[in-house]
Fold this protein.
Amino acid sequence: MQTVKTSVESSLPLDEFVAFCRSAEARRCWPGVTEVPFQGGGFFYTQTLKPPWTRKGGTLKIEEHQRNCELDPSGVSFESMAVWVWPSQDTGTSWLKYRFEDDGEGSILHFTLHYVLPVGTGRRLTRGSELTASMERTVQRYLDCLARGGKDRQASEAATTPI
């Protein structure tokens, strides 16, 4: 299992930031994602992939389900679980944790992504530290877009995810 852990500050008030991050619109902040239908309690979307070491791209199909928000004295958090279906039809899994704190004039999101790649896909994609660095860049682009409330997303929509 691999893990990416990082934080981002936002000028959005805590309640607004949490509500946005739970929305279908927020899923469009992932680079390469354009449409996010909500069906049967989950988000179903695709992400265009472009590995930096090949000209061949593909589409990752994602099904994501969120848990309810939890409140405690230090903030608000929620988790989601997603199934990733790769172009090869191999399946991977990810767990996402969103932890929000009030920061006076805005809020802070502490984000953790745990993911497991399918064995065959993992072998093909893992090229030393390239995959880890690519995942870290992708997560940071996602969080930066979330922090802006999805504004200026055109760059993300036009881009593909460099896995």
Q: What stands out?
A: The domain at 2-158 is CATH 3.30.530.20 (Alpha-D-Glucose-1,6-Bisphosphate; Chain A, domain 4).
